[in-house]
Amino acid sequence: MSYCPSPRSLMLGLAAAAVLALAGTTHARAEAQLLIEASTGKVLHAENATYPWYPASVTKLMTAYTTLRAVKDGRIAFDTLLTMSRNAAAQQPTKMGFKIGTRVTLDNALKMLMVKSANDVAVMIAEGVGGSIEGFADQMNANARRLGMSQSNFVNPNGLPAENHVTSARDLGILARALIREFPDAGPYWRIHAIRYGSRVMHNYNSIIDRYPGADGMKTGFICASGYNVVASATRNGRRLIAVVLGAYSGAVRAQKAAALLERGFNSGGLSWLTPSLGTVDALAPIDAQPPNLREEMCGGHRRKPASEDNEEEEETPATSAAASGESETGSTQAFMLSNLKPAAGKFVLGPPVDTEAPVVVYTGPAGHPDAVEQTASVSPKKKRKRVAANPATGEKPAAAAKPAKHPKPKVTAAGQ
Predict the structure, then answer these.
(1) Could you say which of 111, 116, 117, 257 is catalytic?
(2) Quick one: pLDDT at residue 306?
(3) Is 60 annotated in the active site?
(4) Residue 404: CB partners within 8 Å, gap ≥ 6?
(5) Helix (H) or strand (E) holding 126
(6) Taking a C-beta distance cutoff of 8 angstroms, is the pair 188, 362 a contact?
(7) From the CA atom positions of the chain, what is the Rg in Å?
(8) Is position 411 annotated as part of the catalytic site?
(9) Catalytic residue (one of 57, 168, 199, 226)
């Protein structure tokens, strides 16, 4: 007796074959993904989650954790003034650009760290908390060991390229859970939409916060060797999920993939029994390997735009469409079959950025007595630029500024540009 497949079986078989064929022709890219429940640590999705990876500025989550531990232990306070050293001021490329000797409260420094991803401020914090970059890195690594982040080693507080500065999606998931559980009152630091220093408004590089309903954190990062990384969290109906994406092609693709993971987690409740149990994040087995170096792929001459944290370039490949629709880039027969069982409403594309909150004002100087802000006035190209002192509390400049003198004035560039 010959076997005659049903129309549905034949359709699924042909579709699975098409998926496998597409996977064979799509350009392979190193990437890691992880999706977990914040409350339990249960793993909902894992892809290369235990491969070592260069964290880039996602490192600053451990900088924040180590700093908050110091506050909790009474070794420093949020109103403690930190000083911009020569070493801190020399950090590149993303920075606030403060002059050597500028003082900033720890509270303001944390806001600048998490929103602007300021590398100079990261070193300012490290020197203020740990005495030096090396001393602070020792504290970071001690905290990593205590949390069970067995694949992590930190060399600096900002994530700039350094030998042996590594982590993994698994370890970042463990760290994100620790931040949420141990410091619930610190949540505002990693869900700030934008900060305002004088008249400068700086939006969070984590565009998930402005574009995904319920998003409440946490941090992005980019260096050529790592690709575009993000640890993102969101809460829906009292349930909080954490998504980690490492090695995405651009800031836009990074945000799409993180949103797709979150949406999958929030909409898979009815199908969870069909997927195998992956255990908890701390139980994932680390892989002994070298972290992938994506420098040529991320920063090679083939890109339409220079690679940087600001790059929102879309990737014109089938992988982008998969990310936007909420499906895994690599896919599998099982994943394809499950996707066909999902309702159309389960697919999600990020919406346009929406400013739901006013920028949080930051300043230099002590709390209650902020410094006046020296900044560049906005004038027509034919006019010379001049410095105007803004009110540090409101960011407003005087209503009637004096007319520029006719003699040439030195060109002033806004800090951090």
Answers:
(1) 117
(2) 65
(3) yes
(4) 379, 383, 384, 386
(5) helix 119-130
(6) no
(7) 23
(8) no
(9) 57
